[in-house]
Design brief:
The complex is a heterodimer of chains A (449) and B (297).
Chain A: H1 2-26, H2 32-46, E1 52-57, H3 63-73, E2 77-82, H4 89-101, E3 107-111, H5 115-120, H6 140-146, E4 147-148, E5 151-152, E6 155-156, E7 162-167, H7 168-173, H8 182-195, H9 209-219, E8 224-227, E9 230-233, H10 238-253, H11 264-272, E10 277-281, H12 284-291, E11 299-303, E12 320-324, H13 331-343, H14 345-355, H15 383-391, H16 404-421, H17 425-443, E13 446-447
Parallel strand pairs in A: 1-2, 1-3, 9-13
Antiparallel strand pairs in A: 3-12, 4-5, 6-12, 7-10, 7-11, 8-9
Helix pairs in contact in A: 1-12, 2-3, 3-14, 9-10, 13-14, 16-17
Chain B: H1 2-40, E1 42-47, E2 54-59, H2 63-70, H3 72-104, H4 111-123, H5 126-137, H6 156-182, H7 186-194, H8 199-210, H9 212-227, H10 231-236, H11 249-259, H12 263-296
Antiparallel strand pairs in B: 1-2
Chain lengths: 449, 297
């Protein structure tokens, strides 16, 4: 997700510097200076034209260590990391605009929900020619996020199942257990707000469409489906309406805060202890140190509440792949780099250490590196074991739409207005649906219904 | 012969003098506007494959304009902008006039410091001002009762946004009016003083009519400023559900072009707005000229 990931970058700084220092012991000593030395050595030996220079945009803060490790071991393919001016859609919109001028970097980070849009705008190129064996490391649920109509457009990096975080001190004081069902979540929310009118178990996030999409995925929604060359769009399907109605009930009862995540109000409430739970995802521990530093040690992760007790289905919030852009003059080398980073034990170990990812590649999900919990969750040693187990229940949409940015901005507007004016959430869903469909039709996509 | 030659030369001179301005105007105003008009008549059309393996820019006729006019949200955003203008423009003009008259009063002391203090907000960038005020409004951080009174309520939001904008521009307008006041000939007011007119009477009946042209001018600038409202609501948007991405027309243009990646639709709403703004400015300018002209007599 844009903000989680953008924040993740900033927040991981603490984590990253700590780990990077550790890594620097083995990497910077043997990476940055030798990489410069060895690249100049190799260019002297084999002629400077042999060295291929690549650029990558990525906003995650731990990335320099990963890139310099590659540069150290690959003197002929030198990668330069560029920090984008903005994260998420700020970057994607820039990629789409710059693509017309052919000035994109060779490689970019793109979240799954934006990948079809990158393909539709011809920013991302097919990797089939360069990485024919790509899908072997990934479960089909991940492959379907990066492969459309037989063409693979990105190398998947991580998966981010949704997880419920709660304040154990507050729950213990009120004698509550972490809710396993949504019905219980509602009861707990009411109990917490009743015990202290200032406290909320969570918030409804009108600013972050992907949060809501993740909840809808769990309920069985399929906002976009593709059959042949034809799309069908069902953002206001029964499953999504169920989720919307559930949250409307909670918001109307006053037991849930209407402030979006990462808003100043929410950040203050989290840090002061007024918001005592967060429906978030795998990456949350990297965010917590800046969101709620004064509550460290009180947060516990638990599986997301289910619609029916015992159902382990869960949606995702965030997750990214790396793409090779149409502007790249060295797609083969660019593909090799992202394949190493996201689909090799060495690359993924570096990502786990420096960027705290939970890898999408199946073989890496049992890496020894995952035995240690993220620093913020040091009281919960089994944090990554929990991630591995909830990751088994991940359910995504069949495909994200080719104009998801329209859907997302429409969601933010429609739900913010619904919260502000106390109007119906299902009517808001209807607006998102019609905005999406009309944009797709207007652009010339085949849409049924 | 010499006379004819002089005539010829003098007939070319105005053209030469005006040419640079015209060339610049054509290059940097009409050319981009023309390109925007061209874009507004186009649209992207994808064909082939699920994700559109080929896409072309095709002629769309006036369909982008039709979309803009048929979108109720466009009219709502115009309405919101006008509402803020109705609150903000008179407040700016009245406050600036009152401040300037006070500063110019004979009894006024510490005018340099006061003038600077009034002017200072103008030096604060609009985005910073919005964030600053945002924290004053937000319940979590408000020292001015944001937890009791909702500054982001459905009605309050218009005053909230207008307040940030007015706070930023009153100082500048005050200085403009104050300068106009200082430039007035002293004899009339001295005559009034000798006749026994009070400070208030002088302000209302002597100074005010004399600076009416300047007031008309700042009113016109304030109207144009209100039509360009963008920074304040955009900077306040992350703080509240009350402001959407299409809250005022310029936010909508930005959102169309750079969030929804529809530069064609964005160009159409931008051009529509441009026409409305120019019409309003010319209309306002005509009224102002009449006021000034009447004053001249």
């Amino acid at each position: 997700m844009r903000r989680p990931f953008s924040k993740r970058g900033a927040v991981t700084a603490g984590t990253a510097t700590a780990v990077a220092l550790a890594l620097a012991a083995c990497s910077s000593g043997s990476s940055s200076s030798p990489s410069a030395a060895s690249s100049s050595a190799s260019s002297a030996a084999s002629g400077s034209s042999q060295v291929v220079h690549l650029t990558i945009t990525d906003w995650d803060n731990g990335m320099p260590a990963v890139v310099s490790a590659w540069n150290a071991s690959h003197p002929d393919i030198q990668v330069q990391l560029i920090k984008p001016s903005g994260t998420g859609y700020t970057l994607y919109n820039k990629l789409i605009t710059d693509n017309r001028a052919g000035t994109n970097p060779d490689i970019s980070e793109v979240e799954y929900q934006a990948l079809p849009e990158m393909v539709a705008n011809k920013v991302a190129i097919s990797l089939n020619k360069y990485l024919p064996n790509l899908s072997q490391s990934y479960p089909s649920s991940v492959t379907s996020l990066v492969q459309f109509q037989g063409q693979t457009y990105g190398v998947a990096q991580n998966i981010c199942p949704m997880v419920f975080f709660y304040r154990k001190d507050v729950f213990a004081k009120l004698g509550l257990k972490p809710p396993t069902t949504w019905a219980q979540y509602a009861t707990d929310a009411a109990a917490i707000h009743k015990a202290n009118q200032k406290e909320y178990l969570g918030n409804f996030d009108a600013a972050d469409p992907e949060w809501f999409a993740g909840l809808a995925q769990q309920a069985g929604a399929n906002w976009w489906t593709a059959s042949g060359n034809t799309w069908s769009v069902a953002i206001n399907d029964a499953a999504t309406q169920k989720v919307a109605n559930y949250w409307q009930g909670l918001v109307n009862s006053g037991a849930i805060s209407p402030e979006p995540s990462w808003s100043t109000q929410w950040l203050t409430d989290m840090n002061k202890g007024n918001v005592v739970g967060w429906l978030s995802a795998q990456w949350a521990p990297n965010q917590f140190p800046t969101i709620a530093p004064s509550t460290a040690g009180q947060w516990v992760a638990a599986p997301l509440p289910a619609w029916t007790a015992g159902d382990s289905t869960v949606g995702t919030w965030g997750g990214e792949a790396e793409i090779v852009t149409a502007s790249s003059k060295h797609p083969q080398q660019a593909a090799e780099f992202i394949n190493w980073m996201n689909d090799s034990q060495q690359g993924l170990n570096l990502l786990i250490k420096n960027v705290s990812v939970f890898p999408a590649a199946t073989f890496a999900q049992s890496s020894p590196e995952l035995q240690t919990p993220p620093p913020f969750m040091s009281d919960q040693p089994g944090y990554n074991t929990l991630m591995a187990s909830v990751a088994k229940g991940v359910r995504d949409f069949q495909i994200w739409g080719p104009d998801a940015s329209v859907t997302f901005s429409s969601y933010s507007d429609a739900f913010a207005s619904a919260l502000q004016n106390h109007t119906s959430f299902t009517a808001a869903l209807g607006k998102v649906q019609s905005a999406t469909v009309s944009d797709m039709k207007n652009t010339g996509f085949q849409v049924t219904g | 012969m010499p006379i004819a030659g002089r005539k010829k030369r003098s007939s070319k001179l105005p053209v030469v003098l005006v040419a640079p301005a015209l060339v610049l105007l054509a290059l940097f105003t009409f050319a981009p506007a023309g390109y925007a008009v061209y874009l507004s008549l186009m649209k992207l059309h994808v064909t082939g494959g699920l994700l559109g393996t080929s896409s072309t820019q095709v002629f769309a006729g006036l369909s982008n304009y039709a979309d803009t006019f048929h979108d109720p949200e466009f009219w709502h955003s115009l309405g919101r902008m006008l509402l803020i203008a109705v609150i903000g423009v008179p407040s700016t003009v009245i406050l600036a006039t009152v401040f300037a008259l006070c500063l110019d009063a004979n009894a006024a002391r510490l005018t340099t410091v006061t003038r600077l203090a009034i002017f200072l907000p103008y030096a604060v960038p609009g985005v910073i001002a919005s964030i600053l005020w945002g924290f004053l409004y937000l319940p979590a951080t408000s020292p001015i009762g944001g937890s009791v009174f909702s500054y982001f309520g459905n009605r309050a939001i218009f005053f909230t946004v207008a307040n940030v904008a007015v706070w930023g521009v009153v100082g500048f307008n005050t200085v403009v009016l104050y300068t106009a006041l200082r430039a007035l000939p002293r004899d009339v007011r001295q005559a009034a003083e000798i006749d026994g007119a009070s400070e208030l009477q002088i302000a209302l009946h002597v100074k005010l009519p004399q600076i009416a042209p300047a007031i008309a001018m700042i009113a016109l600038f304030s109207v144009i400023g209100a039509l360009q409202l963008f920074n304040e609501p955009t900077a306040l948007k992350p703080l509240t559900n009350a402001i959407t991405s299409t809250w005022v027309p310029l936010m909508r243009v930005y959102s169309d072009a750079f969030v929804n990646n529809n530069i064609y639709g964005g160009a159409a709403s931008a051009f529509t707005l441009l026409v409305m703004t120019v019409a309003l400015t010319l209309g306002g300018g005509a009224v102002a000229t009449r006021v000034i002209g009447r004053q001249g007599k």
